[in-house]
Amino acid sequence: MNKTALSILIAGLIVFTGLLFIGGSKKANNGNGGQAVENSEIRDGIQYITIDAKGGYSPQISNAKAGMPTKLIVKTNGTFDCSASLVIRQANFQKILPQTGETVIDIGVPIAGTPLSGLCGMGMYNFVINFS
Ligand SMILES: [Cu+2]
User: Does domain 3-131 have CATH number 2.60.40.420?
Assistant: First the structure.
């Protein structure tokens, strides 16, 4: 790839990223407004926490129980933006999620007061789960 082609590609990426960001901001305003919502349930002794990934993560802040085996269910549904590229450092997780589907991530047994955070591959979108 020559230098001109590379510059065009980078310029394109910057514009594309900008558009995604604008889309994401709108979604965030219509979202839960930073308030914690209930999005976890316990089945067969395992706590499942559900996060939607599309134009960011929703809910952005959730509360769940510490001290029990916990799995994250990350749902994508026609997710073409970079929220499909998910990094959860504490769980050693880094993957491109399917455009549509559910990805189950084992996060072990959370410790009270130690939140878990997820980040998109570009660091634009994040979510936090607080454990108590
Ligand atoms: Cu991103």
Answer: yes
